[in-house]
Amino acid sequence: MTEQQVESRWKRRSKHQAQREVTEDIHLPFVSPLLWSFFLAFFSVANPFFTQLATNLQEQILYAGWALQQGQLVYKDVYGTAGILFYGLIWLGSSYQGTVLLILFQFLSSYFSGRKAFALANRLTGKKEVAEAATHFFYFLILILGFGGLYSALFTLPFLILALDLLVPVSAGETGNKGFLRYGALAAVVVLIDPFTGTLFFGVNGLYLFYRNLRAKQLGLGLSQLLAALIGFSLLFYPLDYVTVWNGTFGQALNQGSYVWQTFQFTGADQLQTAFFYGLFLVGVGLPLGLLALGQFSRTQESLFYLPLGIFGTLAIWLVASSQGEFGFHQLLPGLIYFWLLQIFSFDRIQSGLQPGRHQKKRRMSSLFQGYLASLFYLPLLLGAVLVLLPLGQKWLGERSLETERQDVLAYLQQEADRSDTIYAWDSRANWYQEAGKWSASALLSPVYYQQLAENQLRLANDLESVRPRYIVVNTNLALLEDVDKELTTTYTEVKTDLHTLKLYERK
């Protein structure tokens, strides 16, 4: 090793050590993460006052907690694409006073995520004002993409930020596999919480690191980093996931956890329309400003490493989410960390461009997040209001008559169905079972979710044919599978009601 190489390595280590000392000395915020986390947890659909605001997927998560508490098995009795750690958390969160603990878990996850987000943003830019604005943006994304909480991707955020933090030495040019054992362990935890988020995040990061090592002609280094990460992954993944082997659901867990990847395909105009709307969201929150940042601020080692990674990850989640048949902006949650990463450098660019006058600098620094909103004519706030309020308005105004019919049918089921009866609701809502206090006749709780796989359609039809629930509720606005329609005709009789949209069938 030449004297020049030794000196270069020493400088990199000194800079990295100085950055770490600055990060340790910085006073992490307490109040803003606390207020944001309290706000998000209060409006959680786990709060009984807001349960009716839940989306179909959130209703399925709530049902999973209720069913697991009564001895049913996830992946076998309840179809789930999240990981075993997430369902363990949902089971535990539903064990005391309904879902009180779920609200607490959501609060803790949001709080620690925000503090870690601030620390990493400050470490990447060295600017407290940028870190504060980035933290507000981080919570803003959680609010508008994951309103109501409980999505498994939200519980991965603290670990994703820790994983990004472990890559800071790599961005500083340090060679070696130090930290990759912990990096792999974090990958195992994330995959066991949300398999799709884990495979997407660490897959994107892995490809990016491979490209950088290939470009630097350091494939040996890349191989040692990969091996260290795999060892760390194995040390946690297999012991923690052994519970699925023990209860015989390991194969089902693998199959259901890979649902998003199995349905990754573009087959028609619907996906293009979805891609368009998701693209509008990315533009609406100002993420293209991150591209402008490529040439408009100082090219630090951190920015040259993390900014392309943010762009790569954003494009990846946009592409994969657009391929899914189930439309919903919560599909973008696995990419939230990349959106936030891009915005850090956008804030850095905004702040760096506001240096001319002392008074102007002070005024702008004190409201950097507000300056970001103003630069986009407050479009992100408008977009956030639309994403949160439009579904609520549709549910309470557009479906008012349908909701009345649902309550009428639920009252009938609660009165007429026996305790041991099973039911099934061919509806866009999945809260029928908990409301009626009855098991679902199928692990697939709703015909509008997880039906992009032909095997799931077959499974749903077979479940209804084999279990033959006493009652089946049918929303006539939703198309029936041919086998299900035949089963209704031959095995069930329609209960006479005054309903217009819903039909109730009872087993003969």
Descriptive report:
With 508 residues, the protein is mainly alpha-helical. The protein contains 24 helices and 5 strands. It has helices spanning 3-25, 31-42, 56-69, 84-93, 100-125, 128-145, 157-166, 168-171, 180-193, 195-215, 219-246, 250-257, 259-262, 269-284, 289-292, 301-322, 336-352, 358-365, 368-375, 379-398, 400-416, 432-436, 454-467, 482-491; strands spanning 422-426, 439-440, 471-475, 492-495, 502-507. Strands 2-1-3-5-4 form a 5-stranded mixed β-sheet. The radius of gyration is 25 Å and the shape is globular. The model is unreliable at 3-8, 20-24 and 355-366 (pLDDT under 50).
Reconstruct the topology from this structure:
Blueprint: H1 3-25, H2 31-42, H3 56-69, H4 84-93, H5 100-125, H6 128-145, H7 157-166, H8 168-171, H9 180-193, H10 195-215, H11 219-246, H12 250-257, H13 259-262, H14 269-284, H15 289-292, H16 301-322, H17 336-352, H18 358-365, H19 368-375, H20 379-398, H21 400-416, E1 422-426, H22 432-436, E2 439-440, H23 454-467, E3 471-475, H24 482-491, E4 492-495, E5 502-507
Parallel strand pairs: 1-2, 1-3
Antiparallel strand pairs: 3-5, 4-5
